[in-house]
Give the backbone structure.
Amino acid sequence: MARCGGRRLLQGRQCWRVASLAAMVLIALLDLAGARPTLAKSLYKYQDASGAWVFTDRPPVTDAPVEVRPLPVKELPAKVTIRNRGTTDAPALTAINDYYGPIEVEISGEGIENMEARPPLPARVVAPARTETPVVTLRPTGRRWRYGYQARAVLGDPSATHQPDRPYAPPFAPGQRFAVGQAFDGTFSHQHPQSRYAVDISLPLGTPVRAAREGVVMEIAADFLDGGPDQKYRERANAVRVLHADGTMAVYAHLQADSVRVRPGQRVERGAWLANSGNTGYSTGPHLHFAVQRNAGMELVSVPFEFAGPDGRSVTPVAGILLTAP
């Protein structure tokens, strides 16, 4: 006989279904290009013959009423996972961050009965780069108990404040000059908080993309081969994300396939060659999408910035202007 939540069950496997499937993690991470997760799977909830609640992502074969909920998924494997570092009866939920930069994680309760959460849910923590960070522990408070939870994570530390020590270098080689095709509040694709203050620079295919500011490469995407104005390409842009000393992050997107020259965890200096300009992802032609982002508290947002002009003065990017790298 096995016990699960204070109930006697005939098989240990049934106990596993109640304790583990009831604690399925729904992680909705925002990727490099700022795309949202798509709804492609479902979570099924029903009571089995013994009265125990069952949670599964596969359509169940049962005559019992089944509650169906959408389950967010991502095409790419997330670099954040939630693991139980405690026991089945006393779970200790821990966030594992495999990014080369901090993330903010939130765990909220889902169908908790007769269990105490410490700290109370929803609980948020900032997990430093490449670490395991405890988030919450659960303890039974009665004979019959069950629990479930949802987790979400956002790149960056919410305490970050945009404080560059000088204007950003145009992200191409000194002496080169290119036009800004779309700037802040652009009508084509810069209407989301993550891209409101983004800039699209008309770099020809294969143009070296240079770091606008020094920092640490937080993550890269380098394996996509194509792009276009179709919605199916929204999550298929090659990109490099660089973490700055003030906690903000620069995103360089639509990069050419197999052109990324840096690796996650590598420190890069201002002007370093990151990759080549391309046309991957949601794009109408070769260009570089550049944005500076911060975590505004479980939400990734872009922030306004200025480039350095050839005469040393600050230049606010506006659609149609020519940028010259000093």
Observations:
- The chain has two domains: 2-155, 177-324.
- The radius of gyration is 23 Å.
